[in-house]
């Protein structure tokens, strides 16, 4: 059984999205990357175990794939952007009942029941499955018990309000797999469901 890994940036007080237009992320996926070298190296190391990416429909339509495809082309010699090349090369799956076909390279659309579709992906042979999406998508995966590992990129910011991913009722505890603080102020904590 493959592992479904949810990566999510969040604030110290547990929000993944801010109310309003606040700049709170150490790196918001633009050209101004303030992550330190150790965090960049560890982020890329995680992608070596990934051979499938599950994206929310919204994230796919808002340009996630074209953004990282452009980054892979713009920075072909920069070792940090090795993960961008990996995003381009691996299989992508977009679970959606709203899309009939994929408009993106190496990307398939799967319609139907989210737990059934993700469960079928997890049952296949292969490496880890990375999950990227907004709070609603992440919350749905969490509520359905599909996430095997949480990689929480905690930014040095307190938002005081916004969107959370752990607001679904009935979610149990977490078991710490590891945590590391980085010079740039980000702390990456890895958890598995306790059950």
UniProtKB/TrEMBL annotation:
Domain Bacterial bifunctional deaminase-reductase C-terminal: 2-188
Top-rank taxon, per record: Bacteria
Name the record gives this protein: Dihydrofolate reductase
Source species: Caulobacter rhizosphaerae
């Amino acid at each position: 059984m493959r592992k479904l890994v949810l990566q999510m940036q969040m604030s110290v007080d547990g929000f993944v999205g801010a109310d309003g237009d606040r700049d709170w992320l150490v790196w918001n996926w633009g050209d101004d990357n303030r992550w330190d070298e150790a965090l960049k190296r560890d982020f890329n190391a995680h992608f070596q175990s990934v051979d499938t990416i599950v994206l929310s429909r919204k994230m796919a339509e808002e340009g996630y794939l074209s953004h990282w495809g452009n980054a892979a082309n713009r920075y072909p010699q920069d070792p940090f952007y090795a993960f961008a090349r990996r995003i381009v090369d691996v299989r992508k799956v977009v679970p959606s009942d709203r899309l009939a076909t994929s408009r993106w390279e190496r990307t398939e659309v799967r319609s139907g029941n989210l737990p059934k579709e993700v469960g079928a992906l997890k049952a296949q042979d292969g490496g880890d499955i990375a999950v990227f999406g907004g709070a609603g998508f992440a919350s749905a995966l969490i509520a359905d018990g599909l996430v095997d590992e949480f990689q929480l990129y905690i930014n040095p910011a307190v938002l005081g309000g916004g969107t959370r991913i752990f607001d679904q009722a009935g979610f149990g505890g977490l078991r710490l797999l590891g945590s590391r603080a980085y010079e740039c102020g980000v702390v990456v904590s890895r958890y598995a469901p306790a059950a």
